[in-house]
């Protein structure tokens, strides 16, 4: 996926970043697929 596609994605956290910061982080991004309703983080639980 190109940087332009990611920057225009529906990810509001990424879209809120200034372009310069986004470009700095871009090489570290990794596209992952998650199952529907997959819990990424549960409240009050440690992050592994």
Helix content: 25-40%
**Beta strand count:** 0
The structure class reads: mainly alpha
Number of domains: 1
Separation of the first and last Cα atoms: 27 Å
User: Based on CA inertia axes, which overall geometry fits?
Assistant: elongated
Total number of helical segments? 3
Mean pLDDT: 83
- Beta-strand content estimate: under 5%
Which segments are poorly predicted (pLDDT under 50) over 5 or more consecutive residues?
none
Written as H for each helix and E for each strand, in order along the chain, the element string is: HHH
Write down the Rg.
13 Å
Sheet with the most strands? none
Written account of the structure:
The chain has 3 helices and no strands. The protein has helices at 3-7, 12-16, 19-25.
């Amino acid at each position: 996926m190109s940087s332009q596609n990611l920057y225009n994605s529906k990810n509001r956290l990424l879209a809120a970043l200034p372009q310069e910061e986004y470009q700095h982080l871009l090489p570290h991004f990794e596209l992952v697929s998650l199952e529907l309703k997959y819990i990424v983080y549960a409240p009050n639980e440690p992050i592994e």
